[in-house]
Task: structure prediction
Amino acid sequence: MKKLFGIDLLRSPKANKGTAFSQEERKSLGLEGLLPDKVESLALQLQRVLKELGCKTTDYERYIFLMNLLERNETLFYKTLMSNPAYFLPIVYDPTIGEACLKFDVGFRQTRGMYLSIKHKGRVKEILQNFPEKDIRFICVTNGGRILGLGDLGANGMGIPIGKLQLYTAVAAVPPRYLLPLYLDAGTNNEALLQDPLYLGLKEKRPPQSELYAFVDEFVEAVQEVFPLCCIHFEDWTGADAVNLLARYRDKVCCFNDDIQGTAAITVSGLKNAMKIKKEKFRDQRILFLGAGSAGIGIANLITSVMVEEGLSLQQAKDQIALFDALGLIEESRKDLLEFQKPYAHRLKPTKQFVEAITIFKPTAIIGVSTVGGIFTKEVIRAMAAINKRPIIFALSNPTEHAECTPKEAYEESNGQAIYAAGVQFEPVRYKDKIYHPCQANNFYIFPAVGMAVLATQATRVNDAMFIEAANAIADEVSEEELSQGTLYPLQSDILAVELRVAARVAKNIFDQNLARVSRPTDIAAWIKQHAYNPEYSS
Result:
């Protein structure tokens, strides 16, 4: 790489130190006169960033400031995020990322990552080679088809891959030089975007599935040639495409879908700790989903795997899981089911009322992946409390306004007995004489740790066994005292140390499966730490 000097050095976010360049560096690198006289430490620069952030009035304003900082000084950006992850995660990702995506075209300033258009078909390999970094280990790719609970946002969905990959670094110390956010542009069916003069994406309707998949095939094949050690992270595709594409590639290349496998793993982790609270076995639970898309199916499939590990047959495990979608309970008389939903279509009385589905199926847990805010009504929670001493209520949809119910509603309507988790972070709740600490079942506990393990081992594949191990490892990080307060997940304040420990366990699993491209070290935990990015300036 060409050595940078003068103003070019100050304009390179990866190389720029700003006021931290020493007097000797300023002289040798042509920086004299281009910076104020004072030489500052990274710690002092961080103080300035925090002070300026404190002057902002909304998290979206803080998000914009941080993205601008990233374009000036990558090291200082990550130093900021890693200084207090519990505070910064909701700013750089969920829930603020939802607003950022809605405003992505208006707020666009500086390109980041890559944009592959279906008009590039036949030239994808050539286009990928334009990216300046040549050793890419993770590509987070979306087509913007189903962004959070916001639907088809087309090119505005590029905020998601950018944000997801920042979490790889912020919470699991994956070096940012290995990360590439990418938008695969095959148009949008969002009419408002197609009519918006500021919209940045291809102004065409989405193509037929066969045409889209042929484009994705070319992309996946090109990645194997251009970035041979790369793992493809699929994110926020429409439900059927998410399921189909994962099935299409998972046994052929190193890839995973976070909406399916990451969501499943963090849910399983929370359920495992709920079992500790209830002093019950996983295999004895009956679980009803509200939502039957890629997230719901992914969670259901991983739960069946865990139940099989505990001694059930595959069919017995599937019989203990039921799904409910916009057209009602999924049962065997339904003629409108997608192929991946059919294994969970049981011989049950048809109903379009979720409360009635609870009385029919008698679940011990309900899991919301519906993206419909408030749909776990008082009647739903009371119905669960009526048949369960400790009902499990997971309201996993996000952003915040899409949560199926709040923790306050869950605790109040269950007389304080609900075991609750949400897809977003809520404040502690006081009910009667007890303070409850509802926690966030967020995938950032899972996919960055899996990513660090894959990076270190150079894994050839990613499979469900790795996600189950990550789920077990996260569950084991929660103490008995924390469980007694309703906490199902580790505290975010210690997330980097937690995720490096989880990464070590996943790496061990990769070695045990003979999926690593490198030799197994004696001390896997210490070896994982050697791969961790530390946001400090190089001399």
Remarks:
- The chain is about 45% helix and 10% strand.
- The longest strand covers residues 179-185.
